[in-house]
Amino acid sequence: MNTQLAYKETLNSLLQNDPQLNDPATLEGISSLLGKLAPLVQGQRLHNLVDLLSALSDVVDMTDDAMVQKMMRTYEDLAAGAFSLANLSRFAAAHAGSEEQPPTAWQALRRLNSDADARRGLAMMLAMLSQLGRQARLGAMALPED
Amino acid sequence: MSIQDIIVVGGGIGGTMTANNLVAKLYPEIRAGKARVSLISNNPWHYYKPAFMYVAFGMFYKNELRRPLHSLLRPEVNLLLDEVEGFDFKASRLRLGSGNDHRYDYLVVSTGCIPSPERIPGLQEAGDHFYQHDPAMQLYRKLSTIESGRIFIGVTFPKTANVPHQCGIAPMETTLMLDDFLRRRGVREKIEILYTYPTVAQLLRNCLFLQRPVGEALPSVFASKDIRYQRGFTLARVDPETKVAHSEEGESVEFDILMQTPPIRAVDAVLASGVSQAANDEGWLPTDRDTLQLEGFPNTFVMGDTVDLPISKAGGSCHNQSPVICDNIAGLMRVGDTVATYDGKVQAIAQMGLEAGMPLWYDYDSDVIPTPATKIGGLMRKAFNRGVYWSVARGLI
Question: pLDDT digits over A58-97, tens only?
């Protein structure tokens, strides 16, 4: 009881004596904030936000160097992939769109045959298709009977 | 109509992000064949150089700190792997190591700086630093095996007035990291850490940091970690035999490891250009603090470590200078005048020990206001190091 009283007195003296808390702008701001908070407290909706903050704080506590490394590796893979795909798309569209007459199928094949990088790109697409096919084959494996 | 040639020299963080940002800014001209952006680098690899300090504490491997330069560039950037051997700013021409001359309409010089411990007698032989990979590895081997003694930390400022050393916050960051590192090893009680700062630090005298608010906060931080500190120690020479550091102020201190931020200078081609007015043949280019143009050469811009401005030689500076340069080149091409102004802004997340971090920012007019280091700040720095940095280099952030 005495301890509670002491806390109360300390809080009272803090509220009365702290120059920041007694600043008219602070009082006006707190009053305005209380107006917004009151319905949230009364309806116990603020409780959810406090619980959310608590959960966020737990996530911060649990996050360690290894987790950051894994998450940022994923971020870097996604960002680098998106950067590369966006570049390819923009560059290829600008190139293709600038030709007055698009090449015929035979001209395109001849161009492909004479451009080593284009052939390498085709080989890459084939390798990707091969991996897609492999994953499809493995994914279609029969379920165990249990 | 002739094509406008814009050349960026340097494949570090400043040059890489600026080449990408230029393509984004000038895309209509590039697509119409009216402008071309080239980047000249002498290295096909881009290194995350500011993170070499982590190598000194065994926290990063070399492969994690590099990417092929072309993988960071938009395909519209014409990458030239060559050495720039000479700048002829008057004639707007570059002399390349391959023997070619290259004319340009606009030039961005982002060639960085070079640690030069050989400029202090004995420092090359007896000192260590973390501003390059191999020296950082050498320092790691020493820090991970020392059992007792004194680790002496010192900082060398350029002789050019009001120009900072490389990455202003790094000596303080590594001092706090060192304290944590030695505690983890269980040898901290047997090792004395002595942090020193020179008498002259840009415009300040007898301080512990190059900005007053942080300098005033440091004693209590160091006291809480039992780190000794001393003002007024400007390293003059080192005796490698006796392992003694001598100061210009006349003091001598013994050490077991000397972790010294070394003198720095501009690259050879910038030094040889004859344009610099910097003291001690340091080579910083005279840069307009607002437009970032090279004084007397309005079609040339300077950024990053190569400037003679009172702004940190760090990636956080490049990040804010790059958009200004891109806007000004676009302005010169489109309306005949520069349109953007650099306010000196630099931002970073300081590594305060191995786990904590402190976001910070400042500009020409305001200093860093120190705030408590937090684990969230530390996680933000780790996230930046492990992933966000590469998006910054690509000009995505």
Answer: 989 888 888 899 999 999 999 999 999 999 999 999 989 9
Copy the structure tokens of residue A60: 């911060």
Question: B191 and B145 in contact (C-beta within 8 Å)?
Answer: no
CATH architecture assigned to B4-112+267-345 = 3-Layer(bba) Sandwich (3.50)
Q: What is the phi/psi pair of residue B380, to 5°?
A: -60, -40
**Cβ B382–A71 below 8 Å, yes or no?**
no
Chain B partners of A73 at a C-beta cutoff of 8 Å? 386-387
The ipTM of this complex is 0.79
Q: Which residues of B240-267 are buried (b: 16+ CB within 10 A; e: fewer)?
A: eeebbbbbeeeeebebebbbbbbbbbbb
Number of structural domains found in chain A: 2
Tokens 């023997």 identify what position?
B99
Q: A128 burial class (0-12, 13-18, 19+ CB within 10 angstroms)?
A: exposed
Domain containing residue A30: 2-62
Superfamily covering domain B116-263: FAD/NAD(P)-binding domain (3.50.50.60)
Is the residue at A82 inside a domain?
no
pTM (2 decimals)? 0.89
Beta strands B191-196 and B149-155 are parallel
- Whole-angstrom CA distances from B182 to A105, B94, B120, B174, B277 are 68, 48, 28, 12, 43
The alpha-carbon gap from B71 to the nearest alpha carbon of chain A, in Å, equals: 8
